[in-house]
Design goal:
Blueprint: H1 8-18, H2 22-41, H3 46-62, H4 64-77, E1 81-85, H5 88-102, E2 106-109, H6 113-118, H7 120-126, E3 130-133, H8 136-144, H9 160-171, H10 179-196, E4 199-202, E5 206-208, E6 213-218, H11 222-226, E7 232-238, E8 242-243, H12 246-260, E9 268-272, E10 286-292, H13 296-300, H14 316-320, H15 324-327, H16 338-349, H17 351-354, H18 366-370, H19 377-390, H20 396-409, H21 412-424, H22 436-441, H23 467-471
Parallel strand pairs: 1-10, 2-3, 2-4, 4-7, 5-8, 7-10
Antiparallel strand pairs: 5-6, 6-9
Helix pairs in contact: 3-12, 9-10, 16-19
């Protein structure tokens, strides 16, 4: 999906119209994820864990050059090759060179958000290289020719019936196949891909600078095979994914799993250092780690936005967000959706390219409470909103509406007249007003009470007390509030 053409209201409307049941499917999955997170958070002193994790990641970001150099040195010592990519085009050039060098015709991919960010699947297809996703959710949406809808569960926007239909078309499974039968069909196909692929591509949850360790978390075992069966393993890793010390990794593995799925730790954790040694029966002949910038340095230099780079890609903020749950991730028009996408995308792509994402939030604050590394997402949303206003990027109609409201609200006589007009028309004029008109287009019409704050309600209720009543008569007692 081209982020430059993204427009959240239009894409949200199209998602709801073109994918029946998406709201129920996303809400059910997101709330289940969040219930697991809350239970897992309650099993530990999560506030202490989150404060510590925040400090570690902030320390890394403020000393990123040092830790990147250290990580590169350790990886090279282990026999891995390290590449640097300033942007998506540079990352794809690295991939092209490796595909050509090793004569690659088929690639098996582990789940990776950065590979989605770089558009690797489409790029490989343009080079006549077959790329097959090995994560079940990613495999499903690849069959559907869709991008992920969720950082953690890429296919949560699809119902079981949707998956039955596509598997029936592609694999010939029964129209009423059980989830177990669907998994068996995918497993049979992917087993052959694992054994025949020339290259395995993954992302990286963490890179430990002290030891040069690439850490990958999963629940299916596909990443473990993708990194060991093919003769070449290439890991694309955002430059922000570093941890300073080996001792830091244990807590981050647990915290990420608790935030993402409510597990004490992921079912499979792979700790990779380089290619297979002579005495090891499994593992690739070559390992390449590509550190990807692609706008991250620009975000890091931004005094308002840099904290977004602490993100662990756990998806917890998406699960608690009442706005995200209405449509899933496709409405955001970019690979990173939900609250974290709304603050990260403007930094990576530019504010003008991603509006109105920072406004796609109720600012309820649930995302900040769920975040395992305490990213102040509501504050970042407000910062992007202020910039949008200061730079004149908000819609003209919206700016005119706020100027009009300000003119009315700061003139008591005009304000009272407007209130009487709304009350007299029964709210019918609201459909012609900015914001209120859009609100009424999908909700029941407004039904004003007919009264005002100053004069009291039209039906029932006590009248506004007089000035003498408000001050109280000498010697009288004022009852405390209930």
């Amino acid at each position: 999906m081209d982020p430059r053409s993204a427009h959240y209201p239009r894409l949200a409307r199209e998602t709801l119209e073109q994918t029946p049941g998406v709201r129920d499917a996303v809400t059910q999955a997101a709330l289940a994820f969040d219930a697991h997170r809350l239970r897992a958070y309650g099993e530990v002193d999560v506030d202490a864990w989150r404060r510590w994790a925040e400090q570690v990641k902030s320390h890394v970001l403020t000393h990123l050059d040092t830790y990147l150099e250290q990580a590169e040195a350790r990886l090279v010592e282990h026999g891995a090759h390290v590449h640097w990519a300033d942007d998506a085009a540079a990352a794809r050039r690295v991939l092209d060179e490796l595909v050509s060098r090793y004569g690659v015709s088929r690639v098996v991919k582990g789940k990776s958000m950065v590979s989605e960010e770089l558009g690797l699947n489409d790029h490989l297809a343009s080079q006549d290289v077959e790329a097959v996703e090995s994560d079940l959710g990613e495999y499903i949406i690849q069959l559907l020719d869709e991008p992920p809808s969720h950082i953690l569960g890429p296919a949560i926007h699809r119902t079981l019936d949707d998956i039955r239909r596509i598997f029936h078309e592609v694999h010939g499974t029964a129209p009423e196949a059980t989830p177990e039968e669907l998994c068996a069909a995918a497993r049979s196909t992917l087993r052959e891909v694992f054994l025949s692929a020339d290259m395995g591509i993954t992302g990286g949850n963490f890179v430990v600078a002290e030891t040069g360790t690439l850490a990958l978390i999963e629940n299916e075992g596909n990443i473990r095979i993708s990194t060991s069966a093919p003769r070449v393993h290439v890991a694309f890793v955002g430059i922000e994914k570093l941890l300073p010390r080996w001792s830091d990794l244990a807590v981050f593995l647990q915290l990420t799993a608790r935030a993402a799925t409510g597990q004490p730790v992921g079912t499979f954790v792979s700790l990779l250092h380089g290619p297979a040694r002579d005495d090891e029966p499994d593992g690739p002949d070559e390992v390449h780690v590509v550190f990807v910038d692609n706008g991250r340095s620009r975000v890091l230099a931004d005094p308002d936005a840099w904290e977004a780079l602490r993100c662990l890609r756990c998806g917890a903020c998406l699960n608690v967000c009442p706005v995200y749950r209405q449509t899933g991730g496709h409405a955001y028009g970019y690979v990173y959706s939900g609250p974290i996408g709304a603050v990260l995308a403007p930094g990576l792509l530019g504010l003008s390219e991603t509006l109105p994402l920072p406004f796609a939030s109720s600012l309820c604050g649930a995302c900040a409470e769920a975040c395992p590394v305490r990213i102040p997402i509501p504050e970042l949303l407000l910062a992007w909103r202020r910039r949008a206003v200061d730079e004149g990027l908000t819609p003209r109609a919206e700016r005119a509406a706020f100027r009009a409201f300000s003119a009315v609200a700061t003139r008591p006589g005009l304000y009272r007249a407007a209130g009487r007009l709304v009350a007299a028309t029964g709210g019918r004029m609201a459909r012609y007003l900015p914001v209120l008109g859009s609100w009424e287009s999908v909700r029941a019409p407004l039904d004003p009470s007919g009264g005002t704050v100053r004069r009291g309600p039209r039906h029932g209720g006590a009248a506004q007390p007089s000035d003498s009543d408000q001050t109280g008569a000498p010697g009288s007692e004022v009852e405390p509030a209930p």
